[in-house]
Amino acid sequence: MNWNWRIVGVSCVLMALLLSRTGDAFERQWNAGVDLGYASVSLGDEFYGGLGGGLHLGYGLTDAYNLMVEVGGSRHSSSKMSGCEDCDALLAGHGGVGVAYTLDVISWVPYLGLLFGGYRFSGAGMDDPLYKAGFQLALGCDYRPSRHWGVGVQARYHTFVDAPFDAQYLTVFGRFELLWGW
Predict the structure, then answer these.
(1) What is the number of domains present in the chain?
(2) Positive or negative CA dihedral for 58, 62, 111, 160?
(3) Cα–Cα distance, 144 to 103 (Å, whole number)
(4) How many beta carbons lie within 10 A of that of residue 182, not counting itself?
C-alpha cells in the first residue's frame, strides 16, 4: 500500500475523532434495538455459517457499566453437513444476561461484556432439541450521532459450560438502537 494513502487514512480518522462531539453514555440510560448479521457454529472440527439476528436491551448502571439482556438466533444450512443432505437446517437460539464495561470516547462507545445464558439447538437431523448453558464474551462499538439513537457492530464468542472452548458459536451482528432515559 502506498504511504500517501496511509497518511490520508490516518488523517481522516484523526479529524473524525477531533471533530466528533462528546459521547452520550449516561447512568440510568436505556437502549433497545435489533441486531442482524452472520453467525457460525462448530460441529466437530468444522464451522458452518448462517444468518442470524436478535434483540437487545441495556440499562446504564453507571456511566461505565451497563446491564445487558440479549436474545437471538441463527439458521445454518445443513446441506454441507456430512451425512445430513436431507436434514433440516440447524437452528440455534440463545439468550443471555450480563454486564458490559463501556468507554465513553467521543461519539464512539466501545465496550466489552460478559454474559451468562442458555442455548437451544434443533434441526439438522436431531430427534430432540439440544439445550446448553454457556457464556458469551461480547466485544462491540456503537456510534451515537444523537442522544436518541445509535448504530454499531458487535462480535460475540459463545462457549458452553459442559465443553468450554471445545464447541463454539460466533456471531457478528450490526446493531441499531434507540436511547432514552438520561
Answers:
(1) 1
(2) negative
(3) 13
(4) 13
Residue with cell 470516547: 105
Residue 5 within any structural domain of the chain: no
Tell me, what's the pLDDT at 28? 84
Q: Do the beta carbons of residue 152 and residue 139 sit within 8 Å?
A: no
Question: What pLDDT score does 63 carry?
Answer: 83
Q: Indicate the residue type of 44.
A: G
Q: What is the DSSP string of 139-173?
A: EEEEE-SSSSEEEEEEEEEEEETTEEEEEEEEEEE
C-alpha cell of residue 159:
462457549
Single-letter residue type at 156: R
Q: Cα Rg for the chain, rounded, in angstroms?
A: 19
- Asked, for residue 1, whether it belongs to a domain, the answer is no
φ, ψ of residue 28 in degrees (nearest 5) = 60, 20
Which pLDDT tens digit goes with each residue over 81-128? 556 666 778 899 999 999 999 987 678 899 999 999 999 999 887 889
